[in-house]
């Protein structure tokens, strides 16, 4: 079996993705201490659901699956496109769609006292 340039290039990309996700998770879980040794920040729980660590772990798992399965066919590298597709889906569901399809804000009910005050101001400006 001869290995193509695509195989080496995609292995390099997959290795870079795995290394970056590992370093990012190490950075998130790192404990930050003050000058006297007290704990300022205990780091992020990597098992927390719906957090950045979960998405990073999902990316690592997807990359490992693609990396191992690509030994059988070079076409399986296309499965790495699932990562940006998931990112677009998450952006649409959590950011774009709620912003675009949000109902307009309700107009606040103006009390009678404020209504009379506004009417007096309008009458005052009309006279002037």
UniProtKB/TrEMBL annotation:
Q: Which GO terms describe its biological process?
A: vacuolar protein processing
Renumbered to this chain, the Basic residues biased-composition regions fall at 114-128
Localization of this protein: Endoplasmic reticulum membrane
Keywords associated with the record: Endoplasmic reticulum, Membrane, Transmembrane, Transmembrane helix
Top-level taxon: Eukaryota
The record's section on Pfam families has: TMEM208_SND2
Question: Where mainly located?
Answer: endoplasmic reticulum
Instruction: Please report the name of this protein according to its UniProt entry.
Output: Transmembrane protein 208
